[in-house]
Amino acid sequence: MSDELASTRAPIVGVLLAGGLSRRMGGGDKSLMELGGDTILARVVKRARPQVETLILNANGDPGRFEGFQLPIIEDVIGGFAGPLAGILTGMTWTLENVPDATWMASFATDAPFLPEDLVVRLEDAVEKSDADIACAMSAGRTHPVFALWRIALKEDLHRAMEDEDMRKIDRWTSRYRVEHVEFDVEQFDPFFNVNRPENLDEASKLLNEKGAA
Q: pLDDT tens-digit profile of 187-205?
């Protein structure tokens, strides 16, 4: 992020969502799997870090496995592996306590090694033009709700929904607010391609080799 851009807007905090159980990958940390000589998470960090002023990692369990990334590692504020919404709430909570002048938080999945390098700026442009509460990425007509920009003022609403209503589905919760969707091009490849299953790692390697996706 350029110094000029950073000086003209409130800081945006980014949260990397790595708090899941990776069941479809057979468990473990899929973000730490190797792709083209580096971990998937390292590739995500490389793309996400320049887009925000502060980057944190939401992960549960032993934080030591991520210490090489030199990021604040924050456990879910709601226990029981409550899904991506718990990571969103955790990021908002941390941001309010540590970066109080921030009004927006960006979220990134940690299994999508080719995420757009202009993701945050395009989402920010969308909420500024529409006065939306949330901006969400799309590609090929599909929404990607974990790649989004969130108004941090929604934190208390989200906390109540998760605690009082057992809210777990992102789309169900975001339907209560004004959401702006931003379409990203898939002509060469889908930038939100994610490694969910073992066979996806082979597909990602092929993308890396054939299209230079990273």
A: 999 999 999 888 999 999 9
What the block records as the tokens of 116 is 């757009």
pTM above 0.85, yes or no: yes
Which residues face 137 on adjacent strands?
144, 182
Domains with residue ranges and CATH for the chain: 3-211 (3.90.550.10)
What does the radius of gyration of the chain's CA atoms come to, in whole angstroms?
A: 16
* Contacts of residue 83, Cβ cutoff 8 Å, sequence gap at least 6: 20, 168, 169, 170
The answer to whether the CB of 155 falls within 8 A of the CB of 90 is no
CA dihedral 143, 90, 33, 171 (to 10 degrees): -20
